[in-house]
Every structure is written in structure tokens, then in C-alpha cells.
């Protein structure tokens, strides 16, 4: 089907540690994969995205990796900070099917 | 420029009443999406408009839900005979045409609907 699976559903890390969230999809036609961050009570906002013609993209402490063969992509946050605490959603293009979200808590 | 705006920001209604939620997309964005987010849950796709094409209504949960987009800009989501399970935040997003980079979806602040 078109579902996007996302793991883990919740993640707690100590400040300064790294966090990794993984999503898998089934539609091989997908070629655009964004990640959104939603802080409590706020709207989702794009933090990073990747297109299928590259395997990795990095923006400061955030990176996304894509494995098209295995149909999975991951969000990596390094040197986590308390303000990284939020719910993170992956999505795939073509009608933007979203994963169920990962609640990240960064403990000071 | 201005971002996506939605109105009202909050709506409290009684079970059985109809409600209309409005979305003003970013100027020039031809794609418009409606999502529903229940408390602590993910984003549930409802409907998608792209230019003058027929909308993708595959996510509408029942025939009580409908949406239109007049003039290719403003969209209205209508829920008829509201039920308590309709209570959620309704998010609107807009983007450039699919396949036209960047494909970023920009979300509005949402309308928080409470059905008593």
C-alpha cells in the first residue's frame, strides 16, 4: 500500500547524544522525502528534505539518508538539545503520505 | 510574503451542526491539502487540490465532509452534522505544483474544532 512506517514512536535521549528516526515506504515511484518537526501546539514545519537522486543531505546538526533500494530513509540529529524535543514526521511525496510520527524528548 | 492562514483559529459547535473552515494558501501555490490531526496523533490526509484538476478526495472519512476551492485559491472545508469524533485540529497546507521544486508544504496554524 501507500503507508509510511516510522520507528520508533517515542525516543528519549540525553542532551548531546544523537537521535535517529527511520521510515520505510512501499511506493517505488516516490522521489521526494521531507521531514517535518511539530512542536507542542504548533504547526508542522519542514526541517530537511531529500530527493531520490542523492543518498544523503546534511544541514548543520540534521541529516537525512535515503536508501532507495531498501525503501527507507532516516533522520539523524546530532548533539541534541532540549529545543529539539518535538514530534517528527516523515513523509513521501506524491500526495504526501505522512508517517505516524516520533515523539523525541531530549533530557537535560 | 504572508504564509498560509486559516480561520477560525478555534471553533466550538454542538453535535449535529454544520461548520465551515477556511484556508488561504500562499499566493502562487497551486497545490492545497487538508489534514486532520487528533490529539497526540499523526496527520490524516483528507483532500488534495491541484490547479484545475479534479480533487483527490480519497481521505475524506465520510460523506459529511466536503471541500471546495474557488478560483484556485481559497479553500473551504465543510463538515455537516458534526459528531464528537470530528473534534480535532484541521490543518491546511499549500505548495507549488508537485514535481516543481521546492515541493515543501507550508502549513497553516490550524483550526481547532471541538464538537460538544
- Which structural class should the secondary elements of chain B be placed in? mainly beta
Shape of chain A: globular
Give, in order, the helices and strands of chain B.
EEEEEEEEEE
User: What is the number of strand segments of chain A?
Assistant: 11
Strand content of chain A: over 45%
Please tally the helical runs of chain A, counting DSSP H or I stretches of 4 or more residues: 0
- Helices and strands of chain A, in order, run as EEEEEEEEEEE
Major sheet details of chain A: 6 strands, mixed
- Radius of gyration over C-alpha positions of chain B, nearest whole angstrom: 14 Å
Tell me the span between the first and last alpha carbons of chain B.
37 Å
What is this structure's SSE topology?
The complex is a heterodimer of chains A (about 110) and B (about 120).
Chain A: E1 4-7, E2 10-14, E3 19-25, E4 32-38, E5 45-51, E6 56-59, E7 62-67, E8 72-77, E9 86-92, E10 97-98, E11 102-107
Parallel strand pairs in A: 2-11
Antiparallel strand pairs in A: 1-3, 3-8, 4-5, 4-9, 6-7, 7-8, 9-10, 9-11
Chain B: E1 5-7, E2 10-13, E3 19-24, E4 31-37, E5 44-50, E6 65-69, E7 75-79, E8 88-95, E9 106-107, E10 111-115
Parallel strand pairs in B: 2-10
Antiparallel strand pairs in B: 1-3, 3-7, 4-5, 4-8, 6-7, 8-9, 8-10
